[in-house]
Amino acid sequence: MKVIEERRTKTIEIQKVFNRMNLVPDSLKDAGFKNFKERTGTEKSFELAKEFYRNFENVEMGYLFYGGTGAGKSHLCRAIQRSLDADGYPTLFLDWVKLSDLARASISDKNINIHAIVRAAIEVDLLVLDDIGAGHLTDYEYKTVAFPIINGRQGKKTLYTSNLDPERLEQWFSADKDGKPLDEDGRCIDRIIGSCKFVRNKATSMRRERARAQMIE
Ligand SMILES: Nc1ncnc2c1ncn2[C@@H]1O[C@H](COP(=O)(O)OP(=O)(O)OP(=O)(O)O)[C@@H](O)[C@H]1O
Ligand SMILES: [Mg+2]
């Protein structure tokens, strides 16, 4: 009972910080298991995602789902996060691009408390860090957001999605767009490898499939 109350308090505190920030893309707001269509190439990720949710208390490793764009990686992570949220677990779904925009904006906007966001991201029972590896990492984002979160999540369950395979993700962490070293020693990727299994989603783009279905011939 006490555990459930503590969870609820934590969830409410976290929601207070995040409610006004729009860190989930609109296209994923309603993504769930029920509206996930089984498509070729998604079988493995779908099974693992359902199993991860069902067995959340006992699983020890998270996942890093990688693969082509529109394949349903974020949809499945959002499905897990929403389901756990509905069950009362403190969870967060953070889009990397929005998070890094916030980190940069926080330099001049004192209303954005990036450290509170990072703290919450570390604290929740489940964190989804969506689209890691998008754009270029900067020294500021690496030091303020990427490393603290990934380091702080050790021993906790985290789901990542990325378009980059493990080698390219390691390169992404290692230098900024001008080649200036960031995470030269591979500390981030090492921590991710230590706490997540890498799963490739081989599906083609659902966005393109939808667009094709709507094309007027
Ligand atoms: N199998 C599916 N069933 C239902 N909707 C899907 C499925 N796969 C993807 N979608 C929908 O298509 C859109 C794109 O999917 P999603 O964002 O999950 O792709 P992604 O693999 O994360 O792509 P990206 O690498 O570009 O981030 C979303 O609106 C998502 O809800
Ligand atoms: Mg995605």
From TrEMBL:
Signal peptide feature range: none
InterPro entries: IstB_ATP-bd, P-loop_NTPase
IstB-like ATP-binding domain residues: 51-210
SUPFAM superfamilies per the UniProt record, alphabetical: P-loop containing nucleoside triphosphate hydrolases
Pfam families per the UniProt record, alphabetical: IstB_IS21 (PF01695)
Protein name: DNA replication protein DnaC
Organism: Paenibacillus xylanexedens
